[in-house]
Fold this protein.
Amino acid sequence: MNDYRPNSFDADIGELRGLIAQMGGLAERAIAGAVEALQRHDLVAAERIVAEDKKIDVLEKQVEHLAVRIIAQRAPVDGDLREVVAALKIAGVVERIGDYAKNIAKRVPAIDGHREIEPLSVLPAMARLAAEMVHDVLDAFAARDAEAAIGVCERDRAVDDYYNSLFRVLVTHMMENPRTIGQVAHLLFVAKHLERVGDHATNVAEMVYYAATGTHMAERDRGALVTN
Amino acid sequence: MNDYRPNSFDADIGELRGLIAQMGGLAERAIAGAVEALQRHDLVAAERIVAEDKKIDVLEKQVEHLAVRIIAQRAPVDGDLREVVAALKIAGVVERIGDYAKNIAKRVPAIDGHREIEPLSVLPAMARLAAEMVHDVLDAFAARDAEAAIGVCERDRAVDDYYNSLFRVLVTHMMENPRTIGQVAHLLFVAKHLERVGDHATNVAEMVYYAATGTHMAERDRGALVTN
């Protein structure tokens, strides 16, 4: 009997992690795909990305139901409870990351002057960086790796730098090419969305850190003990 | 003995609702205040709004700790469990609404040509509408009022219409006044943030509906029974 509950809990948490890994894989591909579609003005790919976002939403609901069932049936405590709560919150954040990708894909039809807008060429590198943060932070969650989570946070500055430089480049481009303003305004949002994906990956990293250690990452520098 | 647990649960859930009402009040005031500060170019008010966002963050952590303690100690089921989970998720959304207000406040210093940018005059009405949605959806949560939650969702279209019309007005303004492009680009984000506040209030409304009825709002039109 003693072995029953822990094993079942492990199976449940394994299922929970599997669902979140699936969500993360979809979100990561959606970000990269949306920015590629933007650059190639690929309306078919853009539509597919918008449609596939529904899969992420369905997975989020599955995570929520499973997490609530685990809490209700298994009454986990301490680290186990933190992990289930983290899974619930992380699923919500990954769903929002998927929404950003969908939002970028929805802007593809509006950018038909893609060959004239040079700043577009910077976006794929920024998208790759943001998508990698999402990938790595979910690996950190799967491995309960607090150090890896810190590493993800540290990369957010690079995404912010991309954004700040792009903002200036896009504003300059608008001033010099007033007839592209409508299209470039959409690109301001695309750049902002990618910056927000980086922020969300950072938030997830903080959740992973808390789930793994029981202390908040912000307390780390104030000399709090890391207890795992 | 039989009376002990329900009474304690009621006290806990009352505390949870009180914390969320506090968060909502702060977020609502921050949105209205940030847009006012923008219009008056009031740097002192803007700084105060940025600083006060920390209070919302602290309250969110309190909600999280309390919700996890309730689940762990009281093992609520069915409607009670749905309500605790909803509180946890709603706190996360209200925290993000606070972040949008903070982000708007941070843009105040960049808009020093506020007297020349006529579209600015539309923002307070849009901010009021979005802040009211936040107010009303948290009232609906406090009252477990599924019908009121539906009413909030229905108002999101008005916020979207404001946004779509503002986007066009701002792009036209940029074309006609190229030297204001840098400032007006910030206003595009402000308008987008307010539109997102409306979206988030709608998401909260869906959570309130689910917590109160046990069915998802999207299932309502497909003839699902509302069970309260």
Confidence is low (pLDDT under 50) at residues 1-5, 222-228 of chain B. The two ends of chain B are 27 Å apart (CA to CA). Chain B touches chain A at residues 64, 68, 71-72, 75, 77, 81-82, 85, 88-89, 92, 167, 170-171, 174-175, 178-179, 181-182, 185, 188-189, 192 (CB under 8 Å). The first helix of chain B runs from residue 4 to 40.
